[in-house]
Amino acid sequence: RASEDEVSAVFEMPLAQALQLGRYHPLDIYRRGNSHRVWLSWYEHYFVWGMTANILRELALQIGVKP
Description:
One of its GO terms (molecular function) is hydrolase activity. This protein is α+β, with helices and mostly antiparallel strands.
């Protein structure tokens, strides 16, 4: 069960779409003098970002999906 404090919505995205590397866009955030890259994506009207987007993008890279 998803924590309402951490998740705004639970939805399904087709795996073929989730694994499209071109759907993920980097955003570099600077905090306390350090740079942190956050990945962003959208599916229908849902905004996917942070750890969720990073996990899906890394999965695509690990299984060798071409951009």
